[in-house]
Structures are given as C-alpha cells and as structure tokens.
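User: Predict the structure for this protein chain, please.
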Amino acid sequence: MSKVRILIVEDELIIAEDMKDILEDLGYYVVGIASEESEAKRMLVATEPDVAILDITLGKDQSGLEVASFINQNISIPFIFCTSYADKSTVTKAKDLHPNGYLIKPFDKDDLYSAIEVALSNFAAKEEYSQPDVDAGNLIMKDALFIKEGNLYQKVTFDEILWISPEGNYSVIHLKEGSKFIVRMPLKDFHAQLPKAQFFRTHRSYVVNVEQISAINSNNVFVAGNEIPLGKSFRDLLLSQIRKLQ
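Assistant: Here is the predicted structure, written as structure tokens:
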C-alpha cells in the first residue's frame, strides 16, 4: 500500500514548504516541488504523481495555466489551482482548463485536505475507465485503486495485489506485503472494474493477478507461495491470457 502522491507547483519557496509540511502531516506523500513551468512538466513525467497542486502565477511571465494545459494534453491526473487572485478574468481562464479544485490563498489545512479528497473523487467519476462503485468510498483510477480508510484515500497499485477473494457481499484484497483490504462490493462486481488483461477469475471464489502467478498445475495456480484453486473450465482461458502477456 502506498500514499497518494502529490506534486506541488509553487514559485514561493516558503509557501511551498509550508504546504509540503501540511500535506505530509495529513498523510500524503509529496513527490517534489517545482517552481517554474519547465521543471513542473519534467517532474510530472518523472515522478508520476496522483494529484498536482498548481499556483496560477509562477513569476517571470510563467503560469500554472500552461502546466494545467500540459496535464490535460499528456497526463491523466486531477489538478488543483491555488492562487491569491479570485478576479473574474483569472477564474475564467482557470475554469476553461477544467481543474478539479480551486483554492484561494491563504488556505488552511482543512481547505487543502477537502480540495484533494474532492478532486480525487470527482476525477475518478469522470474517467471513462472508472465505473460506479457500490461502496462509493473507493475509486479506481489509472493503474491503482484508492481505498477510503478513515479520512484518507489509501493508494493500492494493481501490481501490489496478489489475489482477491469473497467474504459474503464483500471482496477481500490480498496484497504483496501480507496486508488485506476489504471492499464493500461483491467479487463479481469488483472484478468487472479491474483491467481484464491483468486480473483473471480462476475459480468462482478467486480472482488472481496474472502477473503474480509463479506456477500452474491442473488444479491450482501458485501466487507468492499460496495455492489458489483453478477451476477446470478456467484453465485453458487462463493459459491463453498468459500467452497474450508474453
């Protein structure tokens, strides 16, 4: 399990460092701070954040609006504008780029937390690969599942998942590190939201991450030393799926 990753784009170092401290205190992970457009674009690609917080005015005729445009054209993540200016012209320009949040400086810890959580939720709702969640507290975006735990979304990448099993009307997610998450959704419905190429149903009660399978026999697949039942009717389909990944 990993924390939600955030990139800060802010040219005033004191404000940026203060924001970083607040975010880390809230339980997020700050991948870096960029103070200008070119640096922000480079870091967006290099650090792969889940959310970007963009100051609209970066100084020296540079703008967070250009960074937002770059995100819209090249990277599928939510972004939040923060600015000291709330005039009509600034808001109109910002609105045209469809941000997932807008913060007016000075803002406090609660404002920042609310903006990020709402941005994640709204962004997931708009993504075509994200489907309505029975729990409405968990999100599926890009290559990860964001599970609502307490006050934060906890990020679980698909690569961390070993297999998924049912528990009544819930789904239990088994992770590499040995921990588990319970999602309030039947296994069939949860499986329907996951990437079909990576997650395969080996049995009516099990879905496995195909990339984590170490061995297969006539009755089981082996994932991280665990035997997972393999139904006869699923075996040929599974082998075909694995060949496609090669």
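The CA atoms of residues 42 and 125 lie 27 Å apart.
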